[in-house]
Amino acid sequence: MSSATAQHNPHQPRPSDPARTRAKGQQGWFRAFWRWHFYASFLVIPVLAVLAVTGLIYLLRFQIEPALHADVMTVQPQAGQEQTPYAAQLTAVQKAYPDLSIASATEPTSPDLASRFSGVMPDGSSRDVFVNPWTGQVLGDLNPDTTLSGGAIRLHGDLMAGSVGEFVMELGSCWAIVMAVTGYLIFLKGRKARLRRLAARAKGSALRNRHGWIGAVTGVGLLLLVVTGLPWTGIWGTQVQNWTAEHGSGLWSNDPGAQSSPTSTLDESLPHSHKVDVPWGLGKDEVPTSDPTSVADGQSVANIDTALLVGAREGLRHPMTVAIPEDDGDVFSVIGYAFHDPGHEKTVHVDQFGGQVVSTYGYQDYPKLAQAVSQGIALHEGRRFGLLNFWVSFAFCVGVLVLCVTGPTMWWRRRPAGSGLGAPRGKLPIRSTWWVALLLAALGVFLPVFGASLVLVLLVDQLLLRRIPRLRSTFAVTN
Description:
The protein is of the alpha+beta class. The chain has helices at 3-6, 18-59, 61-68, 70-73, 86-96, 148-158, 162-189, 191-199, 205-229, 236-246, 304-313, 368-380, 386-414, 434-446, 448-465, 469-474, and strands at residues 101-106, 115-120, 126-131, 138-142, 321-323, 331-335, 346-351, 357-362. Helices cover 51% and strands 9% of the residues. Helix 2 (18-59) runs antiparallel to helix 6.
């Protein structure tokens, strides 16, 4: 056979190459995932950066605040000196701040820290008053909402923008799931090309490889924190709580106790009691009350020190928080320390007249869902497994911040010189791939905010980006 005969006739169709077709298909999936990862980052990166920074501050709040406010939060204990009774400390606070409605008192976590009395001023602002437990001297006060940690907590929850901020944070968290999942798919599908570029010392290959590995490690924590943070969200959390309450359960451990929020903004890790809300929306448990007839003259024989002694007798752990009664019908609600293990959460309600236990409410009384949420919250806040959880959460927050920097840096280096965003060209075959469509639909139903935003994205893609040439070019839209 001559060489001329062996040559392929250009007018005849070239035989298909399975390897080339398979490679093209894989490349198409890779670019599609990369495209979704790229556009999701515009929303997710700002949200994740805020969450990571504020999360770090909240994680370090017990180190940051005493250092920033040492004059009111720290004390110098004297050897052999006994603590001033908390009833006397409370009286000193009431005398120094007559307009303060005191809600709770919290024992110091160490001998060199002050006692804390939390309450509300007439203008509605929160106030923490600190007392030297060794001398009974009132050291001063702070508005916990205006401290660095208090501001971080408020930013972390709703950007200090109310329901609008809650929506933005929930939207960003939902799309963070897309970022994490597509990131893993890119990491796995692009590993060979990434290693080839790294071996050839191609420009930007080291940063891309580093970004991929940090994302692979951090992505697990990201998905975990998004899931454990969902109960706090304004739309998903509220709707699920309402649904579970209607079916005899609930996400939260609502206790029909004496106060609504007995703890300071600086430490929201303690379970809260609720004066009005009955547990789980069932309406079966009675709100515990004090009985003036339990003593002969109707005068209270119990005080905050009595409540602490009763709490310790009932097995509560120090340092305890005591919710102060508002009127004769209320009780002292003593909350035990369960910072590292929600399984030890327990509140003892003490009659302010006779000093007897009216009722108790603890982790074992929570609905199963609330127990799971309590464990998830402890994990989310970096306290469930002590120092291990703390340092893992710290490393995770740092890792997220690194990703928030390396991702835009990679884009900036490869962005086109002319017009356009430099977005990857690819199209996810939603119509032709049933499992992709099913997965997105299921995720959209489970996370309504994500579902609504996904519909909006697809409508904008079909009605604007594909029909206006300039937008089509800018956003690198493919057929």
